[in-house]
Amino acid sequence: MFSRVQAQLFGVFSSFGPLYLLKVSPSAPFHPPGFSALIKFYSAAQASKAQRLTDGRSLFQSSPLKVKLSSKQTHFLSHIRPLSHTHCMDLANHYLGFNGWTSDIITLKELPSAEEEEGGGEFEEGGGMRRRLRFGCLLQISFPHYGQKTRGAAVVEDSFTCTGPDVLLQKRCKLQKLVRDQALVQAFTTVLLILLGNGKVMVEVKQTSDQFLPEQSEGVLQVNELSWGQFPPDKEEREDEEWDLTTS
Prior knowledge:
By secondary structure, this protein is an alpha+beta fold. The protein is built from 5 helices and 9 strands; from the N terminus they run αββααβαβββαβββ. The two termini are 39 Å apart.
């Protein structure tokens, strides 16, 4: 009997999206005859839609089903170290294709540093001035084929000896690239690529309370502090670094 019920449940709920788990159990002792089922979706959005459209309906039996969302939330693994910028792009391009995702800069601006607020940097013996630059970036990545999008933000800063306008320009360009890359990495930390057995790929985005709404993005920048000293001076990536192909 339960195998038939399981097959019927699978037919109904798999129409909303791929299922991770479907388990049917008989009712507890001293309860009216019946069954309960635990159904897990890969996608939280698909699970929510399935619950809304099936709760209280008679789908394959005379009595209506009671369908509730579990109060136990499944979170993305938070202890996994985020992928580097290059690895994020390589992984997304490999599984989604070059046209399967896009990135757009919402804002990239130079932020005031402590030295500027105090009236400028200090002169050094060699004739240069000690400067500190600080940039912030808010970036959005979209997955048009999956109807998903998410945002990431970052701030980077560096202090250096400025001996001329060319040094200042090079440092600005370097920090602007770095803050764009780090904002992209931050955005990808909310993305999960699910590889299904049939060779297809699903994209799931973790929804958090600090996700930016379009009308709230103007003038708003929530960031992670990063220092240029955290990164190798010559190369952003080490070629012999072991890849971690798990997205979080």
